[in-house]
Specification:
The protein is built from 10 helices and 6 strands. The protein has 246 residues and is α/β, with parallel strands linked by helices. The protein folds into 2 domains: 37 residues, no CATH class; 205 residues, Rossmann fold. Helix 10 links the parallel strand 5 and strand 6.
Length: 246
Amino acid sequence: MHISALSLFLDFFFPPRCAACDMALEAAEGRIFCKNCFASLERVREPWCERCGIPISGTVTSPTVCGRCRVSPAHFEKARALFRYSASSDGDSSPLSVVLRRHKYGLDQALVRALRQCLEGPLPLGQEGYDLVLPVPLHSKRLRWRGFNQAALIAREVARKLGLPLDVASLVRAKPTLPQTAQSRDERLQNVRGVFKVTRPWRIRGRRILLVDDVMTTGATADECARALLESGAAFVHVLTLARAL
């Protein structure tokens, strides 16, 4: 990576620090993970549910789906996540969960460089071709308060990595929703019911959509986004998240 004279100057007077543990780093452009924090990130690995991507324990020799997807399959065809997400009140949180919370709730857009580091290497998507990358949208009031949509920032990096167009306007969150942190899956499904709308159906019709978000917990939000996109004629919807809460 080329390091500009300005970056070297800033690194000298403002030494870069790890975005998760705050340990001082060697000269680098922007804030990233230190080697220890990055090495400790736990990737989501197979075997997983072929539909929702949740890890399945034990040895699996053929494609399978989890019990929830067999009973109540989501509208999206496939969901995958890069890393496990763990966060606890006693401080035992993974570096990724620390960074995501600081990025999402601390309003620190500079941390997108650390998130970009997480996207290095192959993505767990298979060989499917996509036409558009869409982020899970924020409501306009939340977007004005926060100043950015973290899902859109991640989606921009994914689109750049895959060489695909990014569409941040065709899917909108038409209604504000309550925070979902303490809600059950059924409550989350009810909370997001009907809140997403497609504003430019001609951009969606017949397209193979890759929907991007930061964290998937129950999948309720991604499911409702996928429903709106399919109703507007999308060929299929796959979901990629940076992390999966397990």
